[in-house]
Amino acid sequence: MRIARFTLDAFGPFTDTSLVFDPQPLHLIYGPNEAGKSSTLRALTAWLYGFPERTTDNFLHANPRLCVSGTLENGRGDTLTFSRRKKRKGSVLDAGGNAVDPQVVAAWLQGLDQETFQALFGLDHPGLVQGGTTILQEQGSTGTTLFAAGSGIASLRHVQKGLQEEYEAVFKPSGSKPDLNAALHRYSELKKESNQLGLASTAWKHKERALREAQKGLDALKAERAVQQTERRRLERIQQAMAPLARLRKAEAGLSEVGPVPDLPDDFPKRRQESQDQLREAQQSLDNAQKRLANDQYKLDGISLNNELLDQAATIADLHQRLGAYRKGQADLRSLEDDELEHRAAARDVLRAQRPDLDPADSDTVQQLLQHRSRVQALSERKPLVDKELSDSRTLWESKQEELAQVRDASKTLPHVQDTTLLHQAAVHAGRLGDIDTEIATKRSGCDRLHQECATMFAQLGKWHGTPEEALTLPLPQEEKVQLLKQEWEDTERRSTELETQRQELSETLADLDEQLQAQKEAGAVPSEEDLDARRRERDAAWSLLCRQWVDGEDISNTVTEIVPEGNLIQHFERTLHEADSLADRLRRESERVHTHARLVAQYDRARQQWAALQEAQERLETAWQDLQQRWRTTWDGTGIEPDDPRPMLSWLHRFQKGVDQARRLYEDRFALQELEGKREAARVNLVRELQALEEAVPHGEELTPVRERADAVLKAREELARKQQQLQNEQGRLERERATAQHRLTAAEEARSAWQANWGQAMQELGLPEDAAPETVHNFFSDLETYLSRANAADGLRKRIEGIRRDSQELERDVASLVERTAPDLAAIPVDQAVERLNGQLQRERDLATTVAHYQERIASTQEEIESARIARDAASRELAALCELAGCTEAEELPGIEKRWQEHRTLEQNKGAALDELGEIAAATDVEELIAEVAAEDPDELPARIQSCDEELDRLDGEIEHQSAQAGELRREFREMDGRDEAARKAEEAQATLATIRRLAERYAQLRLASTVLDEAIERYRAENQDPVLTLASGYFQEVTLGSFDGLRTDLDDKGNQVIVGLRGEERVPVAGMSSGTRDQLYLALRLASLEHRLHSSEPMPFIVDDILVNFDEQRTRAALQALARLGAKNQVLVFSHHDQVATAVRELGLGAVHELQASA
Amino acid sequence: MTFRFLHAADLHLDSPLRGLETYPDAPVEQIRNATRRALDNLVTLAQEQEVAFVLLSGDIFDHSWRDFHTALFFAQCMGRLREAGISVYGVSGNHDAANPIGKTLRPPDNVHFFSATKPGSVTLEHCNTVIHGQSYSSRETSEDLAAEYPPAVAGALNIGLLHTSLTGRPGHEPYAPTHPDILGNKGYDYWALGHVHEREVVTRDPWIVFPGTIQGRHIRETGPKGCSLVEVEDGRIRDVVHQDIDVLRWFRGNVDCGPCTCDDDVRHAVRAELQAARDAGEGRPVAVRLECTGATRMHAQLHDRQRHFQEEWRTLAAEMGDLWIEQIRVHTRPPEDQSQEVDPESPLGELMQCIAAQELPESCTKELEDLMKQLPKEITEGEEGFNLKEPQQWQRMQDDVRELLLGRLLRQGGPQ
User: Fold this and answer.
1) Could you tell me the mean pLDDT of each successive run of 10 residues in chain A, 1163 residues long?
2) Cα dist. A290→A277, A278, A860 in Å?
3) Which residues contact B176 (CB under 8 A, 6 or more apart)?
4) Which of A1101, B152, B345, B406 has its C-alpha lying 20 to 30 A from A98's C-alpha?
5) Quick one: angle between helices A125-137 and A142-151, nearest 10?
6) Which residues of A726-754 are buried (b: 16+ CB within 10 A; e: fewer)?
7) Number of H helices, E strands in chain A
8) Helices A832-888 and A775-823 sit at what angle, rounded to 10 degrees?
9) Nearest to residue B5, comparing CAs of B230, B228, B161?
10) How far is B12 from chain A (nearest CA, A)?
11) Would you tell me how many other CB atoms lie within 10 Å of the CB of residue B197?
């Protein structure tokens, strides 16, 4: 798959920006910084895999408008055109805007997800550096390095290490700290604790039985103790009963001694004592009261009262109270009269100053004048406003008048405006051509560049010298024909090689056979059937001769001499006989050797025959070869080209064809250029004509822009003039309207001023002031009138007070005279105030006397009541004593104490007897007292203490045992009580379950990590085993290329630990990765990536390889080498290089490696 | 005459809840002693409903739990019923037969357990009812106990107490097998069964009822749990109503991540499932298993950021109430348009092949055996025990390993 076209319809800073990727080895997407290279990369990702949820590429085009589109093309020539929008659903659209199933795109991307695609087919500078670093960290380990390069995953080592660290942190078979080990430990601890806290059924059963038995023992002891306790209590009771029994006996004796007594009530002694006391106290109180009564009555009779004076007490008090006001009034009168006079004089003076015509006593007139005050004040406040309005409106009218005059003057000085319609039309027409000058210049330089590139390309190609135009008409041979000839050429070469190989093989075979035969020969002659036959024939001949001699007696000497030179036939026969036998023996004995020799000879003969046939075939081939060469050259006739072999020439022809394509484009571009130039000239002439018509200067030269700019400037100046004129007219109209408004305002202000003046004059007349009086004067006038009024009012107030004082004094004097006349005529001669004081003194004295009289009267009444109650008390006491005597059975009260004493003695003895019986009853408790008395009687009092002591000792012993037994039972009960169904063990078991859940999770996690680590290692090893040779072979070539031949290639080697590692070859020297510079390691990683991608093509469809600025750290030479290596891959698999470095762009152009696309962001 | 009785079974007292790993926000205290508190609820319910008696159809205790405190707790609960004047009739089940604590226990005198040697009957005069039953003598009781039960007493309400799996129920041992027809032919009015932890009314004439366990103890026991309240009117069963007395619910939530494209979408889907879990809990704490499914764009993220999502969802659960995330399982798939067709000859292709191997890699077997040796048998045994030879678990492990490696290798998913 390759990307045929890619358009940033609306993305980042781009709008409708297209990149067309025709089939070239390399495409450089080049743009200086900020030109949007990164945006383009992101756009490419968005196109293939959709927009991310959040994007920063929406600053120019809003999210809904973001769009990227393009065309993919596969090896069969099928294409897929689609666009991508930022949407959740239906983001993929076809050319017609219809939704496309995203799976269609996914299928073209071979189902690879974004991350895999980026890892496999993307490489940026950090990725390259990381790759180089990883190679170093892995010490060039073959497996890891190949896997990393093949998958594009540079962080492989980091991942492997991470997995290992992680699973070791989870679990170690013999560790204790890792999480899982710790959890396992915790689990077993919890189980143990749960077991310890748990209660076994048997333990409970045992405990229950022990408790039952302990309780039983305790009960028995307690019973025994109870018996002992009872006995002790019985003895103690007897001992306690001894004393009360003695008291009982004593009381009974006393009672018989006292004898019978009257039965008196319990309160008899108290009643008797109280009655006698009461009688005595009543008599004493009666005597005292009668004495007090006589004394008080005497004192009361000696006091007499003035009742008339006392009857006037209210009047005298009223007069005495009024006396204070009277005295103050007399004192104030003088100064009040002085103040009144002063206020009256001041009021008169003030009024006389303002209005001498008015009567100072007539304050009503002044009051009326003051009523005008608010109206006059309002008028005086309006005056400055009226004055200001008049002055302002006058100033405004004058300024408008002046401005209008100025505008009229300016309007007169403006020049005349000419009609520019024609010039405007010409400029618009020229404007439609756009920046035609730049376009022409670009096109022209493009043509020049294209021409240069073509020329360079043809020059670099060699073999042919001519202009690009000539190349278009060059009668080059048909590619198909060249293909056929190439095929034939290669067949012939292959045949020749085969023959040569055969010849070499045959030659070797012959030499070998020859050698073997020679070796046999050297090991001794090989007997043969032929030799044996010869020997036998010799033997038979000799035998025949001997037979002829011996049997036939024939003289055979002559014949013998022929056969046997020495003449001894018998010896000859024996020798031949022996030789034949010996040969026959050898033939049998050395039969294998004989056989081998025969085979070798036969093989040798066959080989010789093949040799001859081979010679013939080679000669035939030579003839065919010459014929082919002749035909090959003929094919190129008419081109003036001396062809090399068809193979390079086919490549040459391809490249030449590209040159021709470029030349054709050059031809088309030039034609387009001429058209443009024609259009520009027509527009320019038109503009020049119109400018001249307006008598404007015209710039020289063929370019349209200066003329158009001149025309624009002229149009702008004329428009400015017209605009100014219009502006002045508008201004004049506006000023005239404003002047009229100002005129109206001035008139109104003048009218307001005269109305005010009339009102003011009238007001002054009413106040009796001159008509032109100033507001300040009027203000003072009102102020003085107010002063007058306030002084007059003050004098009136004082007058009223003086008169009031005088009236009150006269009234008091009248009242006093009347009283004195009635109650104390002797005081008539003295002044009023003194008379009142004297009267008041007398009244006070009379009041004191009246109080004393009342006091005595009260005391007399109280004493009389006291005498009465004393008499009643005395009588009651006498009656009570009489009643008591009747109870005691006597007649006189004096006998009562004696009877009472005997009665009391009898009573005490009875009480003692009762107490003794009660005590005994208490001791006897539930039993009968009589029974107790009998029991006491039965016991010996002296033995009792010893017997009680013995009981106590027995009780102590039992208490000790009970306490011990109780403690034991208590402990058992406590333990049993603790077996209460508590949940501690269950809680621990719950905790253990929670830990078990943790263990489960960690165990799965460990297995997961461990498996991941293992399969990763396994995959790395398997990939290495299967791909090491082909990938390293390819990588060697790339490595040599990108290191500019400073390395001869790559191979595998074993390091100190016996691990397979990749090393660089430099002649015979093997350079480990640690011995390479970091730059070289980066190049090694690049070589491996390129090799992996190339190797991948055996099994997979090509995919575009996208390289982002990986050459930043390469020097110029290496940059060029790397670009060439990329282009080499690019011939088979599309390569897109993103860069913002000029040197990269320059290199690609100069080396003719492919197309350079310059990015131009529209924002 | 009308009266009510309660029927419960499979108390498994003090058998702990399984699979709940503690984490900081988990409602640990709220789920303590769940089985005990469920039994407490049963007693309270019996008191409130003023039932005539309570039936317990076996498995009071768990066979593996030997703490006698558990038996004492059971006796205390029975004591509470005694104070309320409620008698209890029960049979022991397979778990009780295998556990000595039940045999040692002497419950209060209101509790009657039927003999294990032969079927017995108890007549309750005051409510004209005869209860028949037989306990297990040993754990593996394979004979049909019901076949030997006496025929129904005419004119009385007849109840059969039996611990059985009937004709067999998945996940339960086939003890005391019998057939509903055999039970039906006895002429009883109500068969109070136990042993099966799911509640089930097998037939209504006669009533054959499994009340289920009183408290779910692991994720296979989801939904409400409790006992059956049976109303009797004039010697006939009028109605059987299930009463929930559990204190914690188990809930399986399926989070369909299919439509999710971002974290917020996933959080929304999870919140909906947690809400469903909370609703299912009806005011109780709920242990939730979240299973993420569907072909989703969040597939890779869900795998790579498992720890992150786990924390987030636990916090969410804590915010929403007493929810305990028991486990999170991610079974999502990548969306259809992102399913990888990796070239088998490429490095990643090799890796995928290694992962997809049918068996554990040999080089890894020893380490995993070391691990398995140290794991408690509670982890490695049983239906859901950890065992990579089990095909489903192995398949899941392969999926997890694949996502783990792809995450680390391609998506730079760092160590969690």
Assistant:
1) 93 90 90 79 91 87 92 90 89 89 85 84 89 85 88 83 92 91 95 92 90 91 90 86 84 79 84 85 84 82 78 85 85 86 86 82 82 86 88 90 87 78 86 85 87 84 80 82 86 89 89 86 79 85 83 76 75 84 85 84 88 89 88 83 83 84 87 89 87 82 85 86 86 89 90 88 84 84 87 88 87 85 80 83 83 84 86 85 84 81 84 87 82 83 87 91 91 87 92 94 93 92 90 93 91 87 90 90 92 88 90 88 93 91 89 88 58
2) 21, 19, 10
3) B136, B141, B142, B143, B144, B145, B146, B162, B163, B164, B165, B195
4) A1101
5) 170
6) eebeebbeebeebbeebeebbeebeebee
7) 32, 13
8) 60
9) B230
10) 12
11) 24
User: Scanning the structure block, which residue is given the tokens 């339960």?
Assistant: B172
Using a CB-CB cut-off of 8 Å, the residues of chain A touching B32 are 983, 987, 990
Give A1076's DSSP letter. Answer: S
Residue A13 near residue A1161, CB atoms below 8 Å: yes
Chain B residue closest to A113 (CA)?
Answer: B338
Which pTM was predicted?
Answer: 0.55
What is the C-alpha to C-alpha distance for residues B187 and B201, in angstroms, rounded to an integer? 17
Q: Which of B340, B348, B393 to mutate to test the interface with A (most CBs of A within 10 A)?
A: B348
Task: Print the SS3 string covering B377-390.
Answer: HHHHCCCCCCCCCC
**Euclidean distance between CA atoms A419 and A424, whole angstroms:** 10
- B contact residues 189-248, partner A, Cβ 8 Å cutoff: none
Q: Is A198 on the interface with B (CB under 8 A)?
A: yes
Give CA–CA dist A1058/A784, Å, rounded.
Answer: 131
- What DSSP state is assigned to residue B29? G
Place of tokens 């002649």: A1067
Q: What type of residue is A700?
A: H
Both tokens of A908, joined, read 């005490």
Residue A408: what residue type? R
Q: Which of B66, B86, B93 is nearest to B195 (CA)?
A: B93
**Is the separation of the CB atoms in B326 and B219 below 8 Å?**
yes
Chain A partners of B14 at a C-beta cutoff of 8 Å? 983, 985-986, 989
Contact B231, B267 (CB under 8 A): no
* Long-range contacts from A265-270, C-beta under 8 angstroms, 24+ separation: A265/A887, A268/A884, A268/A887, A268/A888, A268/A900, A268/A903, A269/A900, A269/A904
Cα–Cα–Cα angle for B316, B322, B325, rounded to 5 degrees: 60
The DSSP symbol for A7 reads E
Q: A635: which 2 tokens?
A: 């094919």
Beta bridge partners of A70: A6, A82
Strands A1135-1139 and B200-204: unpaired
Strand ranges (E), B211-283: 226-233, 236-244, 249-256
If one counts every other C-beta atom within 10 angstroms of the C-beta of residue A219, the result is 11
Render B338-398 in DSSP notation, one character per residue. G-----TTSHHHHHHHHHT-SS--HHHHHHHHHHHHHS-HHHHSSTT---TTSHHHHHHHH
Note whether A333 and A342 are within 8 A (CB).
Answer: no
- For the record, the structure tokens of A229 come out as 């306790």
- A vs B, Cβ pairs < 8 A, gives 238
Which of A54, A88, A159 is best to mutate for the B interface (most B CBs within 10 A)? Answer: A159
**How far apart, in whole angstroms, are the C-alpha atoms of residue A166 and residue B413?**
13
Find out whether A103 and B337 touch, Cβ atoms under 8 Å: yes
Phi, psi of A990 (to 5 degrees): -65, -45
| A167 within 8 A of B413, measured Cβ to Cβ | no
A110 interfacial to chain B (CB closer than 8 Å): yes
A459-485 burial string, b = 16+ CB within 10 Å, else e?
Answer: eeeebbeeebeebeeeebbeeeebeeb
